[in-house]
Design goal:
- This protein is about 35% helix and about 20% strand.
- The protein is an alpha/beta fold and about 350 residues long.
- It has 2 domains: about 130 residues, Response regulator (Rossmann fold); about 180 residues, Rossmann fold (3-Layer(aba) Sandwich), CATH 3.40.50.
- Strands 8-9-7-6-12-13-14 form a 7-stranded parallel β-sheet, with helices on both faces. The protein has a 5-stranded parallel β-sheet with strand order 2-1-3-4-5, with helices on both faces.
- Helix 3 packs parallel to helix 4, helix 4 crosses helix 7 and helix 8 packs parallel to helix 9.
Amino acid sequence: MSGVLICDDSVTMRLALRRTLEAGGLQVLAEAASGEDAVQLAKQMKPDLITMDVMLPGMDGFKATKAILANGPARIVIVSAAGEALQADLSFRALQAGALDLVDKPDAGRTGVLAAWSEELLMRLRVLQDLPLGSRPAGMPRATRPTITRRDMQAFGIVASTGGPPALALVVKDLDPNLPFPILVALHIAAGFTEGLARWLTTQTRLAVRIAEGGELATPGTLWLPRDGYDLLWHNERLRVMPTQGGVCPNGDRLLQSLSTGLGRQAGGAVMTGMGADGALGLLALKQSIGLTFAQDAASCVVDGMPAAAVANGGADQRLTPEEIGFCIAELGRLKLGAENPACQGRN
């Protein structure tokens, strides 16, 4: 049965969601006020999309997401307020469990906010509605692993959007805390969720995870995120943050272009799962300055928009899974420290 299932314990929020979805031409099949109800309704109705709150009575949204996906594939979007630590943490656990996207709840007290929020929510839902269930598009065939030769790697940048948190976690999960360079991340995330993302990432990696305020030394062995509403840039071994000027936030093109300008061959970058084309121009600039460049392979992407754009414009040396990208970052670290030439290979 085509349509949307809404799950939220707030009558007011369910009404706001229903009005938004129906005004956008989407059919609401049913509403659930608890995780248990959502699980049962999803099993019965098999909706195209499910909007899921995380702070619910009884079974929370994280557990409900896991239970729904245990019964079969489903397109679940977390719609949650970012204000409380537990709520944010549950949201990222739901994304790790298989929810596809995370949308902040609107601040009903601010004039004009609801209209902008409604437009953003509908845009995200329409993209996800077209994703095939239970399968992913086939990846580009690979000839051989690319060869990575010794280079003085100073920083590695990662850009991601929809599906990005769990993909990023796979990249960094096995990295050594003594990695001899930093990882700078531009992950499109709703305002208010950056601290929750940072907390969640500390449970996924042995690297230090920090939010850049601007001016910090880009310390090695650290995964850096920009603060809410700002872009993260490399500048003379330090981190700069600049307000995002429209468009996606944080901006991945600006991050990768700053690495290209500041480091060239001594930098690497990867564009990962997400809708749109952010990061493609920045990755191309990095490649043109002889940096090392990757795009996530299509088969492991939730949305193959950004990586496909990076391949189409010639910016990506190779398409790799998140685990392979992490493996190559680890090998770059070992090579920088003078280890023996490993199995991971890439462009000179």
